[in-house]
Every structure is written in structure tokens, then in C-alpha cells.
Amino acid sequence: MQTRRKFMKMTVLSGLLTLSGLASMSALAADTIKVGILHSLSGTMAISETALKETALMTIAEINKSGGVMGKQLVPVVVDPASNWPLFAEKSRQLLSKDKVDVVFGCWTSVSRKSVLPVFKELNGLLFYPVQYEGEELEKNVFYTGAAPNQQAIPAVEYLMSKDGGSAKRWVLLGTDYVYPRTTNKILRAFLKSKGVADADIMEEYTPFGHSDYQTIIAKIKKFAGEGKKTAVVSTINGDSNVPFYKELGNAGIKASDIPVVAFSVGEEELRGVDTKPLVGQLAAWNYFESLKNPANAKFIKMYRDWAKQSKLPNANTVVTNDPMEATYIGIHMWKQAVEKAKSTDVDKVIAAMAGQTFNAPDGYMIKMDETNHHLHKPVFIGEVKADGQFNVVWKSKGPIRAQPWSPYIPGNDKKKDSPETK
């Protein structure tokens, strides 16, 4: 009898301890907010995306240090979709259904974003996408903190057509073979045609992800450029293919004064793996460069360098900041502000609260999220590559430009709404 009573006491005590443990776990969960980070940390896109994961972790740590969001600490949940587009969809479903994150910051390529969209729509998740893209999309469940074509591609081509940019007459549209380069080049071809450029003066070439042999293509570009008119290359090459492309450009002795190349997916991070001396004067168009001088950027650069050393990142002493890193940083802070305005992490309430959010960005401007179209108003900068892999700004817009998600150069876009469907 005594043994039985003892057993019952222990069972009750064990049950109470279990309930107490569950209660403390529940209290812990109530005191935290889970944030998903969906970036390729391996494969062809790791060269670009790894730094965005680190930027997200740094920003989360910064927010937690200053009291969190609504007094709750942010808990990052990091996954690696490994530059595998179907795996992006699987990992996004895992983050939303299993890990129960309240928001996801991630993707780089448009094919990865297109891959996850059905999952975010089905589960009513919230994605912040931090990279320049081709437009032609406007989704309720996505905030686009990178550039639309009118905030990068169109100004870059206009600059190259101008006297200051070299008065280019012939165009090589060179990209990785997927949706972003093909759609961007469709827009640019229509834009060039509107400016009187003939089809014979436009060469279009695509290579697969991870392509490494650019000798034949560079030879074709040299031949095309040798036919009498000033030629410029517009590069939408993505990922680690940029390294062999720029190396071959240098090997072929092509200088910016001969054939200028403007890139939309090459920034400070990608140039870390390249000898930039032969590339001096080549161009990139972005909404941010590390070389911009202002207090917000000085703070951002110092924070990331300190984070790299503290986290013992590879080559911590030579880390750089770039445009998609800034867009990640802006997005996380704006989401925090929207949650605190909504007093909730509920997706629909946060979406409503995002409209009109502002942030003092490292690009030197007070950046605004548009009231209707889920895109940031962004300044545009065109920079020349310097010998140290940084950029010297040679042109900038007069101020932030409102995004046009639907390009006016694509027929029928004038009938499309400038706000996402909310059904």
C-alpha cells in the first residue's frame, strides 16, 4: 500500500513537472518571435546569398539588443535551399508549417522566388525579397525591397546611351538563362526599340547557371563590337559565373573604354573573388554602394565588419557591404516597425501596416515603402569599378524613384493595377 502511495505521489509530481515544463516552454514561445531566413548557403548562388544570411542574423541581433519587437526577442530559423529551386519551395513550407515562423527574409534569383510564391499564397506567409528583379509581378504576400527595372536597368541603359556614358549604339544583352535576365532583356529590347535601335544592333546571349567558359562568348562580343558602332554590354549574369566572365574579360584585354559592361548582379561581394585591376572603369547599377559617404552608411559598414569578426566569418578582415545586404537590412527594420504599428505579427495586419513605412537607409535617403505597390522608393547609382574592388559613383538619380512593377514597355501593362490582389 505504501509503495502504491509513493508511486502515485511520484506520478502526480512527474505530471506537475511536465506541465510546468510545458508551461515554461509555452511562456518562452510567447516571449519570442520566429523569423525565417531562406538563402542558398551552398551551390552556385552561395557566393551572393551567404552574405544576406549574415546580414539578417546581424540585424536580428541588433534588434534583440535594443529590446526586440514588442518586447519579444527574435529567434532566427536558418535553412539552406542549396541553389536548388524546388528545394526553396520545400524549405519555405517547412519554415511556415513546421517551424511556424511569422515572416521570411530570403531568395535571390527570380526562379527561387517564383518557386516559393505558391507556398506563401497557400499558407498566407509573408516574404521579404531583397534583390533587384524583372518586375511583372505584384503579390499580396511579398514585399520587394530590391529594385524594379525602372530603378536599375532602364537608368543604366539611358546612361550608356548618353554622352557621359559613351553614346552606345549597339547592345549585347548577356545573361544567365532564367526568368530575370530574359524578362529584363525583353523590357530592355522594347525600350531600345522605342529609342530607335534596330534589332540588328542588339545581340542577345544566355548561359546556364554555373557556366564557366566565356571564351567563345567574349570572342563573339569582340566581333559584334568591331562592326563600326560603339557597343555596350548589359550583364544579367548571376551567381558564381560572374567570376570566370570577368576573368575572361580581363584575359581578352577588353577595357571599359573599348566595350563598357554594366552589371545588375555584380557588386562588392562578387568582386572579392576577382582581380579587378583589368576591370577598372566597368560599371554596375545599384541602389546602394559601400563607397557612399553618409552617417547611416558608416554605421552600417562598421556594424557588419564588427559582426564578421565577432562571428569569425571567413576572410572577416576583408568583408564588404552591398546593395542586397542593404535591402535586407531595410526590410527587417521596416517589418519590425510594421509589427509594432499593428501590435501583432498577424500577416494581414502587418501587410496593412507596411504601407508608407520609412527608414533612414545606408544609401543616404529616408526610404519609403510605397503605400500601394509593395515596393520601395529607391535612389539609383551607377558606379565604376575601382582597382580595390569598390565603386566610384559616376551618376545618381535626383532622389528616390517610385517603382513600376509593371513595365510601361510591355504591351497591356497600362491596364494592370498598381496594387496586389488581396483575395
What features would you describe in this structure?
This protein has helices spanning 2-30, 46-65, 85-98, 110-123, 153-161, 179-194, 215-225, 242-251, 268-271, 295-310, 323-342, 347-354; strands at residues 32-38, 73-79, 103-106, 127-129, 142-144, 170-176, 202-207, 231-236, 261-263, 283-286, 358-360, 366-369, 376-377, 381-385, 391-396. With 423 residues, the protein is α/β, with parallel strands linked by helices. The strands form three sheets. A seven-stranded mixed beta sheet has the order 7-6-8-9-10-14-15, sandwiched between helices. Strands 2-1-3-4-5 form a five-stranded parallel beta sheet, sandwiched between helices. A three-stranded antiparallel beta sheet has the order 11-12-13, covered by helices on one side. α3 packs parallel to α4. The radius of gyration is 24 Å and the shape is globular. Mean pLDDT is 93; it is low at 16-20 and 22-28.
